[in-house]
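One-letter codes give the sequence; backbone shape is given numerically. An example follows:

. . .
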Amino acid sequence: MSEVDKGRIIVIDDDDGIRQVVSTALSNKGYMIATASNGKEAIQKSQTNFYDLALIDIRLPDMDGTNLLPAMMKINPEKRKIILTGYPALQNAIDAVNMGADGYLVKPVDIDVLLRTIEQELEKRREAKEYSQTKVAEYVETRIREMDAKGYKKPETE
């Protein structure tokens, strides 16, 4: 995979410093980065742009990060979602997973751990996409064989 198509990530955090540090680190590794400082902005950007992965702060000024998860899933069900929190608690982790988070990391996050987690999540996304494409191709091939077996002929074109 080339540096150009490594992945598109949206970083959603109300802390300017965290957005800047994480964005710079990810950009330097070849990811295309967008940022949002609240849930509403993240939803708007996700409706008009495609992202492979979202890094979501658990506490945003306009909503809980866990409440943003279903909206992100509705916009793009294949998007991987990682919750970042400075308030680690078992209940937060359980809520995040139950609401659709694919990962949960505690701030201050070690950049190497963050990068490994992102790479793992994007690999899971690629594998799921390949699996889906394979299943669609298998279905089409099966339907063609079924139609051939039944003697179906393509209509003549003019």
